[in-house]
Design a protein that fits this description.
The protein is of the alpha/beta class and 342 residues long. The protein has two domains: 2-116 and 297-334, Nucleotidyltransferase, domain 5; 127-292, ATPase, nucleotide binding domain (Nucleotidyltransferase, domain 5, 2-Layer Sandwich). It is built from eleven helices and ten strands. It is globular and about 60 Å long. The structure holds 5'-O-[(R)-(carboxyoxy)(hydroxy)phosphoryl]adenosine and zinc ion (ZN). Zinc ion binds next to helix 4.
Length: 342
Amino acid sequence: MLILGIETSCDDTGAAVFDSVHGLRSHKLYSQVEIHRPHGGVVPELAARDHIQKLLPLLESVVSEAGAQRNDLDGVAYTSGPGLAGALLVGAAVGRSLAYALNIAAVGVHHMEGHLLAPMLEEQSPEFPFLALLVSGGHTLLVDVKAPGRYRILGESLDDAVGEAFDKTAKLLGLGYPGGPEIAAAAKAGNPERFRFPRPMTDRSGLDFSFSGLKTHALETVRAQAMDRQTAADIAWAFQDAAVDTLVIKTRRALKQTGYQRFVVAGGVGANRLLRQRLAKLGADLGCSFYYPRPEFCTDNAAMIAYAGGLRMPGAGDHKETGFEVRPRWSLRDLTPIETSA
Ligand code: KG4
Ligand code: ZN
């Protein structure tokens, strides 16, 4: 099956062609960062309008780069939630119209299921079951992944997502958007000895997270200092150290609890180098295998949507329905197991 993937849930326009036999054939991403940067964050209406302009040429280009023609496609997978309503509607409208015109199946994909399954795009991919640390701009989840579509949430953030805390702290420090890569870059010049931030909720049992206190701690530290470049770098270092440490402590706990020998990191914050290093060390310490997508498949992309859509297509894909809906709020808990022929 040749699947065209479409991702428009937030500020990246993504397109990909995935071949269920031979793997990923092509993928492209157009980032809207420059459009939103002057506003210090994503402006939903600007995001939707730009997806409208960029999506069709991007789709044409991935199909031709895959060495295929439109008529070779067997299905279209588009992100149908969670995300920004206007942005999601662009991908859904284009995806379903295309499937209707080509008389092929279309399926709406859960964006976080896409992230969760992104490690499967790599040559070194885990067998099921495994533990997933899913960390993005909107979610911080520890998930027991029993099989495709069979997910049990073991822990989640009770307030801000970890990516959101990176973004807000970057803003406080006068760094740009998106905050994660900016904090990571600033932290390189940071002095590890100067500040120590708390590791929220690690002194209590359980696998839930809380990151709003860490952001507040950053705010109080900023207020108490005369700010200059070095101080911003030192705070960035202390914030990143604490955020990463907290994720690693809970992942260790979840591995012990589940007894799983395999774990993955996925989602935008999974691109963070310090996090990957410390998780790799955790894996080595516990004798567990650690898997991760390449950094460009941690952040938003359409390859993961094409992959997840390909799994859900048999039986679920439909192009005859002309109406469609998007789900800006949609829990991973509401997903159904994927029927596999095995
Ligand atoms: O998965 P993603 O691209 O979009 C969502 O589904 O939310 O994740 C975006 C989040 C943002 O909060 C961004 O600051 C964060 O991932 N991020 C990072 C890094 N790269 C992206 N956080 C820490 N370090 C990074 N290198
Ligand atoms: Zn995402």
